[in-house]
């Protein structure tokens, strides 16, 4: 009497092994993409929390140029009680002042607004970056680490002249800036 030999399972189809390997690779790639996106959310969330949006502060566009802190003679950089403040205005299609002087390694507070349309600016590759909305005062404080000249383009489309709208920022060594600012007058680097 012959022993009954159970039939051996069929050999796995070669295509199935390829499919499993491909799916495993794809799962790993997708896992890496998801991990990168979550990492980006965490990094940007923590970084932006270090520069929180400011409170809402309004200003009357119609009387901006007549009285208050944004009259022309008050624009530019000042140092009062050791605090450096830059006041500027954006309008189609320029910034006032066109050239801004700031120190390196000392915190600088920017206060700006727009007179006509929504504008904005970013200073070179620094984190000095804000929108300027008519009727609102945009303010933030930052510290420039490197000296030298930076471009400051308008980065909110504001009309047909938008691409020609930019200013300059001169970041001076702290002692050079302090020597200029000690007099207390408004500083700019606009050629006279
Ligand atoms: Cu613009």
Task: Describe the overall structure.
The structure is a single chain. The protein is an alpha+beta fold and 192 residues long. The chain has two domains: 13-50; 72-181, Sandwich (Immunoglobulin-like). The protein is built from two helices and ten strands; from the N terminus they run αββββββββββα. The strands form three sheets. Strands 1, 2, 3, 5 and 8 form a five-stranded mixed β-sheet that branches. A three-stranded mixed β-sheet has the order 4-10-9, covered by helices on one side. The longest helix has 36 residues, at 14-49. The chain is elongated. It starts with 13 loop residues before the first helix and ends in an 11-residue tail after the last helix. 22% of the residues are buried. The mean pLDDT is 90.
Task: Tell the overall outline.
Answer: elongated
Largest sheet: 5 strands, mixed
The CATH topology annotation of the largest domain reads as Immunoglobulin-like
Task: Summarize the helix and strand pattern as letters.
Answer: HEEEEEEEEEEH
- The average pLDDT value, as a whole number, equals 90
Q: Write out the CATH superfamily name of the largest domain.
A: Cupredoxins -  blue copper proteins
Rg (CA only): 29 Å
Share in helix: 10-25%
Q: Which ligands accompany this protein? A: copper (II) ion
């Amino acid at each position: 009497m012959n022993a009954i030999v159970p039939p051996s399972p069929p050999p796995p189809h070669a295509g199935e092994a390829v499919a499993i390997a491909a799916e495993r690779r794809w799962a790993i790639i997708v896992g890496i993409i998801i991990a990168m996106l979550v990492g980006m959310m965490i990094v940007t969330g923590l970084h932006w929390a270090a520069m929180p949006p400011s409170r809402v502060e309004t200003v009357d566009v119609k009387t901006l140029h007549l009285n208050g802190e944004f009259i022309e003679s008050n624009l530019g950089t000042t140092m009062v009680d050791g605090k450096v403040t830059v006041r500027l205005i954006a309008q189609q299609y320029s910034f006032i002042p066109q050239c801004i002087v700031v120190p390196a390694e000392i915190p600088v507070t920017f206060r700006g607004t727009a007179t006509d349309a929504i504008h904005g600016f970013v200073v070179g590759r620094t984190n000095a970056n804000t929108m300027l909305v008519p009727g609102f005062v945009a303010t933030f404080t930052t510290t420039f680490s490197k000296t030298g000249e930076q471009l400051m383009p308008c980065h909110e489309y504001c009309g047909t002249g938008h691409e020609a709208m930019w200013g300059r920022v001169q970041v001076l060594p702290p002692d050079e800036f302090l020597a200029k600012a000690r007099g207390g007058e408004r500083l700019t680097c606009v050629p006279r």
